[in-house]
Design brief:
11% strand, four-stranded mixed beta sheet, 8 helices
Length: 176
């Protein structure tokens, strides 16, 4: 079972209002059940909510992906970002994903959420950018699951990522 359906299935068992809101939004979209990219985008938003222990998890998900469906002008939106928003993130406008760092659009991926996630992780490594504390578990999970880079078991976050990974694996076992 691929990681995207696992995340969505795990989210369905959550009682978090933020998680339920995201699930309802994506369920209302046309072709959600048949469109992998929409499922991938939903899984990314849900992953941020599920791996963030802060009460501000709904806000911290915007540190990874900021969805602006109704935004007409990407440049003006980026200019209006607060100066404090320096860590890389994905900006999704319509069906296009853009990597934004330091209030600059670095690259636009195709319409692929998965490709955009890999590019986002790459930006962190290429430019040697430290991870935002609010999203460290999300980024570590993506690193281990998508890039297949293992965590050092002495890393202080190893246990949290392992617990989340085990929860996803349990879903896989239940469905088989």
């Amino acid at each position: 079972m691929a990681i995207v359906p696992k995340i969505i299935t795990l989210a369905k068992s959550s009682s978090s209002a933020s998680v339920i809101k995201v699930l309802r939004y994506y369920a209302s979209l046309k072709n959600f059940e048949t469109c992998f990219d929409k499922k991938c985008c939903a899984a990314l938003e849900l992953l941020c909510l599920l791996t963030t222990v802060s009460k501000r998890s709904a806000e911290s998900r915007r540190c990874i992906i900021d969805i602006q469906e109704d935004c007409a002008d990407m440049r003006s939106y980026i200019r209006k970002l607060p100066a404090s928003r320096l860590t890389p993130f994905l900006l999704k406008i319509s069906e296009c994903y853009t990597i934004v760092v330091d209030k600059e659009a670095l690259t636009q991926s195709s319409n692929s959420c998965m490709e955009a996630i890999v590019l986002l992780l790459s930006v962190y490594y290429v430019f040697h950018i430290g991870w935002c504390k609010a999203t460290i578990l999300t980024l570590l999970f993506m690193q281990t699951e998508m890039l297949k880079l293992s965590l050092d078991d002495e890393d202080i976050h190893y246990g949290s990522v392992s617990i989340f990974t085990n929860a996803l694996d349990a879903i896989h076992e239940e469905q088989e």
